[in-house]
Fold this sequence. Notes:
- Helices cover about 45% and strands about 15% of the residues.
- It is built from twelve helices and 14 strands.
- Helix 2 links the parallel strand 2 (about 30-35) and strand 3 (about 50).
- Helix 1 crosses helix 8, helix 5 packs parallel to helix 6 and helix 7 (about 185-195) crosses helix 12 (about 300-315).
- It is globular.
- The model has no long low-confidence stretch (mean pLDDT about 95).
Amino acid sequence: MRKILITGGLGQIGSELTKKMRDIYGNDNVVMSDMKAKDTHKDLIESGPFEVLDILDKEKMGNVIEKYKINTVVNLAAILSAVGEAKPGLCYDVNMNGLYNVLELGREKDLSVFTPSSIAVFGESTPKDKTPQDTIMRPETMYGVTKVAGENLCDYYHRKFGVDTRGVRFPGLISNDTLPGGGTTDYAVHIYYEALRKKKYTSFIDKGTQMDMMYMPDALNAIVQLLEADPTRLKHRNAFNITAMSFDPEDMAASIRKHIPEFQLDYDVDPVRQSIANSWPNSLDDSEARAQWDWNPEYLLDDVTADMLEKLRIKLNIMC
Length: 320
């Protein structure tokens, strides 16, 4: 039976992954951790073990691993792209030194380690359309730099020390549960909230900017599916391209208008986040993930829109 520690457990992915993994593996077998407890997540925190943990504190993380007899770490603690550009030193420290601590504990204690990467590993010199699994990676953000280095570091720990490291390159993630925390693709969540509240949205990403996206249920399934995949099938381990759809803000607006015909979209482009978006691919080739561990997403854009609007109407108490 897996005994799992999730770092960054109160973030956009972690809060939802904790629920899913507790359903699969049992509440007591999934330890959620974060820098501090939050009243907004009280029910989740109380549904199973929770530890206040900074991944830069290797000694405390080791103690938590020993306390709960952990054999799998899902390392979600990270500083994301837009915040990383504002605080590059912090981004490097958390994303690199924190990961190093996790991998060292993986080596010392024979742990499986899942660490997600991102489309941010790519840059202007990367092929833009159907970006291959193995290609040029020259990122232009600190977040991207740390993710490229992290992929290589995880591969090194697997080759050198036999640590069972695995990971995917996530595109932008859309969730109806937890708000995103400082990424370039955050507009693709905010737009649904504003469509219901105001029937209009001002996008900080410009018209025509194609980016890969994924609905959170598919992202959570990908983590569990790769963790449980047969290792003998895995030629790659720590950097699988995965995607579900690629669209721009206008495509989202068109999808929303199928449910809210009067929805209006305008633009006030954020030059920092737009520059980041411009350096990323339009679409990814995820054929290796499909071949090596049967990756197959369920949600396309119109599916996401219908589900997001339905769930958010209930959440926001907007029933018209």
